[in-house]
Amino acid sequence: MLKNNINKNRIETRLAIISIVIIIAAWFIGRQFEDADIVSTIKVKMPEISKLEEIEKASYKIYNSKNEETGYLSIESSMGYGGPLKMAVAVDEKGKIFDLAVVSSKETPSYLKKVLSADFLDNIIGKSYNEEYSIGNKVDAISSATYSSRAILEASKKGNRFIAANVLGFNLPKEIAPSLQFGAVEIILILLFAVGYFAHKKTFKYTKIARWGTMLVGLFVIGFYYNQPFTLSMFNQLLLGYFPPIHSHLYWYLLLGGVFLVFTVENKNPYCSWFCPFGGAQECLGLVGGAKHIPIGKYKNLLKWTLRILVLLAIVVALLLRNPGVTSYEIFGTLFKLTGSNLQFGILGIVLVSSIFIKRPWCNYLCPLGPVTEHFTYVRKLIINKWKSKKENA
Question: 48-166 maps to which CATH number?
Answer without folding.
Answer: 3.90.1010
